[in-house]
Amino acid sequence: MFVDTHCHLDDPAFEDDLDAVITRARARGIAWILDPGTTVKTSERAIALAHQYDSLYAAVGIHPEDCADASTEDLDQIEALTRDEKVLAIGEIGLDYHWAENPPKAQQKQIFARQLEMAGALGLPVIVHDRDAHGDSVDLVKSDAFNPDTGGVFHCYSGSVETARILLDLGFYLGFDGPITFKNNKKSPEVVAFAPLDRLLIETDSPYMAPVPHRGKRNEPAFVADVAAKMAEIKHLPVEKIAEATTANAERLFHLKEGRS
Ligand code: NI
C-alpha cells in the first residue's frame, strides 16, 4: 500500500480521464492521494474532487509562482476552505526563485510567512515548495512564522544533505518524486540515503516529472510505486518496507487516522 502525498489531479491534464487515473492508482496499491491547491480556485477544485473520490484528500494554499496578486481576501478564503473535512494541510506554499519572471522575492516571502502563520494558528501541517530558494526557505521555517508543532513536508526536496539536516531537526518530512529516478540526478539520492526512514514521503507531483520508465509522459499517482521502487534501491530495503514506512509517515504527518477537530 502506497500513498501519493503530492499530485495535482485538479490540473486540466486529468479533465478527460480522472476516473481511469484513480482506478489505475487503486489497482497499483495506492491507498490515498493528496492534492494540494496552488491558488484559491485550484484549492476549491481540489476539495470538490476530494468529495467525489473517497481516496482523495485536499490541501489549500497559494503557490509562490501564483502569489503576485494574492490579497488578504485570498488568504481569508484559503483559511475558510480549511474548514472542509477533506482538507488535511496548508499547501502548496513556499518560495520559487527559479524563473526571473516569478513574483518578487519580498512578495513571495510575505505570502509564505502569512500562510505559515495561518497553519500554526489552525494546527495544520504545511506542504512547502522550495525551488532554488533554500536559504530563505530555511530562514522562514526557522522564524516565529512557523509553528514546529504542526509539522510539514518539504515536497520534491532538491536541497543538500546539510539543508536536509536542518529541516529534519525542525521536524520536517522530506518528499521525493520522479527526479530521484533520473540518471543525471546525484544529489537527491544522497539525501534519500541520508534521511531516516521515518521522515520520508513519496510523491508524484502529477502531471509533472514522471519517474523512469514513464519519463516524458504525463505523470499520475499510480507511478508513485516507481518512486518507491527507486527509494527501496537507494535504501537497500524491500519495497514493502518503503511502502509501509512512507504510508505510516503520511498518516502521522497529516493526522489521517486521528480525524479532524
Ligand atoms: Ni506541486
Q: How many separate domains make up the residues?
A: 1
Order of helices and strands: EHEHEHEHEHEHEHEHH
Q: Over the alpha carbons, how many angstroms does the gyration radius reach? A: 17 Å
Count of helical regions = 9
Terminal Cα span: 26 Å
Enumerate the spans where pLDDT stays under 50 for 5 or more consecutive residues. none
Q: For the record, what is the CATH homologous superfamily label?
A: Metal-dependent hydrolases
Q: Which compounds are bound in this model?
A: nickel (II) ion
Question: What CATH first level would be assigned?
Answer: Alpha Beta
Compose a concise summary of this entry.
The chain has 261 residues and is α/β, with parallel strands linked by helices. The chain has helices at residues 18-27, 40-52, 72-81, 105-122, 134-142, 161-169, 187-194, 224-235, 239-253; strands at 2-4, 30-36, 56-60, 87-96, 126-131, 152-155, 173-176, 200-202. Strands 1-2-3-4-5-6-7-8 form an eight-stranded parallel beta sheet.
Task: Give the SSE layout.
Blueprint: E1 2-4, H1 18-27, E2 30-36, H2 40-52, E3 56-60, H3 72-81, E4 87-96, H4 105-122, E5 126-131, H5 134-142, E6 152-155, H6 161-169, E7 173-176, H7 187-194, E8 200-202, H8 224-235, H9 239-253
Helix pairs in contact: 2-3, 4-5, 8-9
Bound molecules: nickel (II) ion (NI).
